[in-house]
Amino acid sequence: MSNRLAAATSPYLLQHADNPVDWWPWCDDAFAEARRRDVPILLSIGYAACHWCHVMAHDSFENAGVAEVMNAHFVNIKVDREERPDVDSVYMDATTALTGAGGWPMTCLLAPDGAPFFAGTFFPRGQFLRLLAAAADAWQNRREELVQAGQRIVAALAERADDSTTAAADGAELVDAAASRLLVAFDEDAAGFGGAPKFPPSMVLEFLLRHHERTGDSSALTMTQRTCAAMARGGMYDQLGGGFARYAVDARWVVPHFEKMLYDNALLLRAYLHLWRRADDPLAERVARETADFMLRDLRTAHGGFASALDADTGGVEGLTYVWTPEQLRDVLGKDASFAAEVFTVTQRGTFEHGTSTLQLLRDPDDQELLASVRSRLFEARTRRPQPARDDKVLASWNGLAIAALAEAGMLLDPRYLDAATRCAELVMRVHVVGGRLRRTSRDGEAGASLAVADDYGNLAEGLLVLHQATGDARWLGEAENLLAFAVAHFAAADGGFFDTGDDAERLVRRPREVADNATPSGVSALAAALLAHSALTGSPDSRARCEAALASLGTMPGGQPRFFGWALAVIEGTLAGPVQVAVSGSDGDPARAALETAGWRARPPGAVVVAGTPDAVGVPLLQDRPLVDGRPAAYVCRGMVCDLPVTTVPELSRALTG
User: Fold this and answer.
1) Is residue 317 part of a domain?
2) Which of 45, 64, 387, 429 is 20 to 30 A from 118 (CA-CA)?
3) Looking at the structure, do residues 573 and 586 belong to the same domain, yes or no?
4) What is the mean pLDDT of the chain?
5) Are residues 559 and 613 in the same domain?
């Protein structure tokens, strides 16, 4: 018999709809039920692609004995962290404050008013049953202690949230300090930053590229090139189908945690595009193409949006779809198996589990034709294996990242990527805007109930602004302006930063405000990026001022902790660089205008804006008062409020952007 999750739009909640646990979604009725029954709340937070969430579900939530205890003594609430990042943020702060670490699945015990008095992550069944028994006993016999503990935790979280660092910081000094700290933290042996597990530092790479572009710092480019090469050649990258897994469990990028997330691939697609554009790196170009192809092939939904993730597990076995043994290579490739085993580092002992190996491409073989044939045959054989499940909900924020990345890829690599970006934007604006308010999720073309949070507004607005540049369509600029106006009106904080939730959102035990960039840009850095792009495209001094105020609200933290403020640092670099504005004016269909536009996109510094169209095109501010020059298409290059003379040839434009 299904529980209350059967009507959910979240695939993660639907995975638990047939549990014997009497789950509730996060809603007022669940808290009212806890008050009526006079019992505490068990809050379980996870996401569909989470391996250990699946393990705990199979071990505990599908067990009738465990469910009997949970149902007798608790009101049980299940939350998809991707659908409700505000709820996740509040209780993850409690978990890290109480335990010193966090992660998913997250398990919290709450009083009926939402105050947490216990928090943890994964629990094996025996330990989980002991926790449930102890908590039920304490609620009956020592309730006042638990209530007071919850109140102290809420007060401490509120105090932490108010203790923000807002000391004035010079932008140039801050990014120089950040680059220096990253150089110290760089893994000279295996590239990247830190040890195992090693996450793809996509936003830090974007910052380093922009820093190199502005300052000429060779170490910033070297760190980017080495990290991108190491990730692309390791097991974290899908050597057959393209796309990146969420992270490597080791420090050398060999074994991934096999789930593939939309946000990682969108952010990394842009990073590899920008590296290729800056360094003419053929590996970066190949990886960018393959990653974009992966997104279109495996993540695009029937309605034109992009699904959130592919699971790490296939049939309950992590990595089953992706790993190989020498024998499996022989079954598919015959005499070419030894070539494949050597090229992809597939050994008898294995690099993963049970004698299986992830595929790595540590060097390019001389026989590229054979490599292409082997990859094609292995990929085709892999499609006949069981495939990982897909979390097909569409998130506004992550689709905004995808729109930006694919629009750029469409201008630089293949127009079909731009077509995909446009179709995605049309879906999100048609489905996710309900009554003038952006919704965070949709599934099967139907909007979910959760209101969008700050990073939804920021990342979607920035994606639409990139789409406006790529298409010259004034519609996307207007849609982005509406999103930014709403965010400024409803999310702004007194210090110039932004809360994660709007002033019309559900009240939690505290109003969440995450300032650090985690796996995706924070709300404040996402909105700052979009505001900066908007100011460059329109000349709006208000957007520029709001961007700078948002960055100033972070104080000196980005310089001191650069690995956790990569997107914010990239935006700061944009403010220091101008950002560069390129307006290409000419008649539609004129090959000379098209050549200038292509050159502008190819040579533009990271963070720059480029728009092409007819002179004085309606609704396109960057093209106003940009006439032809002697009857010929012309490119106008400006930095901040200072403009160069217009140029009419590709070499002149390239020199203006790279010299």
Assistant:
1) no
2) 64
3) no
4) 94
5) no
> What pLDDT, in 10s, does the model give residues 406-435?
999 999 999 999 999 999 999 999 999 999
Considering the entire predicted model, what is its pTM?
0.92
612 DSSP β-pair partners: 584
Q: Round to whole Å and give the CA distance between 240 and 248.
A: 17
**Is 93 within the bounds of a domain?**
yes
Do residues 364 and 431 share a domain? no
From 115, 132, 162, the end of a domain falls on 162
- The domain boundary, picked from 531, 553, 577, lies at 577
Question: Residue type for 555, please?
Answer: G
Rg (CA), the chain: 25
Average pLDDT over residues 477-486: 98
Distances (CA, A) of 497 to 66, 441, 527: 44, 24, 9
User: What is the model's pLDDT at position 643?
Assistant: 87
Question: How many angstroms separate the CA atoms of 550 and 15, rounded?
Answer: 39
Assess whether 380 and 241 both reside in one domain: no
* Residues contacting residue 268 through CB under 8 Å, at least 6 positions apart: 200, 202, 231, 244, 291
What pLDDT score does 640 carry? 75
Q: Name the residue range of residue 611's domain.
A: 580-658
Dihedral over Cα of 289, 292, 293, 298: its sign: positive
Q: Check residue 310 and give left, alpha or beta (phi > 0: left; psi -120 to 50: alpha).
A: beta
SS3 labels along 71-111: HHHCEEEEEECCCCHHHHHHHHHHHHHHHCCCCCCEEEEEC
Residue pLDDT, tens place only, 195-229: 999 999 999 999 999 999 999 999 999 999 999 99
The number of distinct structural domains making up the chain is 4
Q: What's the first-to-final CA gap in the chain, in angstroms?
A: 68
Specify whether 252 is located in the same domain as 307. Answer: yes
Residue range 332-353, pLDDT digits in tens: 999 999 999 999 999 999 999 9
pLDDT over 90 (residue 3): no
